[in-house]
Amino acid sequence: MEALTKLCWVLLAALHLAPSLPLLRPGMVERLYGVPASGDLGVLLTHRAALFLAVLAACVFAAIAPEARRLASIVCAISMIGFIAVYMSAGAEAGPLRRIALADAVGLLPLAFVAWRAWR
Fold first, then answer.
1. HEC profile of the chain
2. Per-residue confidence at 71, pLDDT binned at 50, 70, 90?
3. pTM of the prediction?
């Protein structure tokens, strides 16, 4: 069961990898979001990448340190459920954001498992 828990944390970390990449490669802001990296929105999206890197780091840490799992499950839940809620309240239209919402929705399965394991 511990191996499955660690695998789920690694999957959650992987889910947060792509949105964290613009921190290291600002040009990816335009590729991922269609926004120039140099403008105000690009700067905000690059900062968003830093926050995703923090979520990714929390997931990696939770994979190797069981004492971090409760906090990491809260951080992941806020990130993933928060995006889904904002996306749904904005009308859940088709487009690039739908792909992100679907990825987060699928990610809720391993998140539910690791949260259950952390909080039981």
1. CHHHHHHHHHHHHHHCHHHHHHHCCCCHHHHHHCCCCCCHHHHHHHHHHHHHHHHHHHHHHHHHCHHHHHHHHHHHHHHHHHHHHHHHHCCCCCCHHHHHHHHHHHHHHHHHHHHHHHHC
2. very high
3. 0.91
